[in-house]
Amino acid sequence: MRENPLGWFCPAYFEFGDMSLVSNSLHSAQNTGIVRRFRTAGVDVVSGFLRHELWTSLAQDDLRQRYRRTVFGLAWLTLSYFIFILAKIFIFGALNPAPLAWFAAYVTVGFLVWQIINSFVVDGATSLVNSETWVKGVQLPYSTYFYESISRDLIIFGHSAVVAGIVLVFTGHIPGWAALSVIPGLLLLVLNGLFLHMLLGVICLRYRDIVQVVQTVMRVLFFLTPLVWTADQVGPIADYLVWNPFTYLIDIVRAPLIDNHIPVSSWMVSLGLTTVLGLASFSLFAVFRNRIAFWY
Amino acid sequence: MSSVYINDLCVRFRVYENVPGEISPDGAGVFTHRSRSRRWVEALSGISLQLADGQRLGIIGRNGSGKSTLLKVIAGLLPASKGIVNIEGQVSSLIDIAHGMRIEATGERNILLRGMIAGLSKREAEARISSIAAFAELGDYIKMPVRTYSSGMAMRLNFSIATAFNPDILIVDEWIGAGDRAFQTKARARMQELVDASGALILASHDLDLVERLADRVLWLDAGRAKALGNAKDVIASYREAVDG
User: Fold this and answer.
1) Number of Cβ pairs closer than 8 Å across A and B?
2) Which of A54-63, A143-152, B164-173 is least confident?
3) How many domains, chain B?
4) Domain span at residue B67?
5) Pick from A26, A29, A138: which is nearest to B82 by CB?
6) Residue B111 placed within a domain
7) Which ipTM value was assigned to this complex?
């Protein structure tokens, strides 16, 4: 078993430019102690993050490839979000008693946040499965593929966010002080994104059926989350909303932007959920990390 | 500075495919059972070897005997199921042409990405593009997506990248298909340069003449076990004897 010469857990080790030393220590014998497994998983997550130049480039390539030989390129992301949201506002706005200006902002921001959470879940499930040729071909921390997927989702998010910004201004929702809480809110979402990638990436690699389960569940959850309808619209069903974790994660970003207030209880629930998800996903990743290469 | 130390290495794959059968080809890894319902393939077992600076190891053996699996373990692409694997030095591997390439990206972009994978910063990798492109002799094809390349051209690019970032240990699997005759001469010279720069070379091949020329030590694998490990000439001679009868 290789000993890390700089001791326990030392990200500075990676700045020596000799990544292979690290990568090899990341791929050592399988039957090792639980402490060491958690340590190598930690090293994986940190060293993967330090390769930000690589995973941002990979993410850009992914998207460029998707819009290859189109005239508008990535502008399609903004355009299609705009058209999509416009249709939603007019159809569901007609059914909703709230003023149209408020409802338009509600749908646009809510759906923006839903879209990023949904892509964290769905892309998280396929992140390792789709990286097969890379895992088999080059030695990189597995977390590199998580960060690649997350930054790809964030680029898409950025293009849609332009539409949300325009709609907010257009409907008279000029951001107040509470809007500053959106920044930690989004950071919390991204952290959850990483955890979802770790959890679902590993599970779905081993049990490929779960990919389909995840996609189906997300499609159903779209209707069970207050996005195109409001809680006061659905009567007694609203009581069940407390069991939908996405309600809180969306609330912490949406409420400050459209109602200019910080939803403290949603923040508490979101922080609690993140902690639980973080512990569960990191443990799973640490314990099964060494088997990943065998599950392709 | 490079060294490879492997002691009592085992690699086994769980068989997820639900097909019956116990028979594996002659010389290939064998099925094992750890419980009634679960089958495994013992790809490598009890492998021990050591390699120091400037040593060149050849790996020979029949199809399925574990050559590529061993290369992947040394390259850090597969973890050991059991045993100790200790690799020091920057490893670069040429195991599969298709892996580690973005066929939709241009040749230049692939050089950049692989440079960053090898641990260079984006700027350092950018600075290397022109020299690597020149070595691969792809002309303006270097600005075209790799999917437009012939397989020989893709291999040339891959070889040029794999050897460009001064690896301490170069791992090559059946590289002999790399490009045309002219490029092969050049490739051999580059490999010699790397080995002379006191790096280690590990080469798996069925071309015994090539192995004899490039390697000073040879490991003969049979059904995942080391049948012989030693001086290149002797091991190859006994392998020839066993195969040709």
Assistant:
1) 109
2) B164-173
3) 1
4) 3-90+166-244
5) A29
6) no
7) 0.87
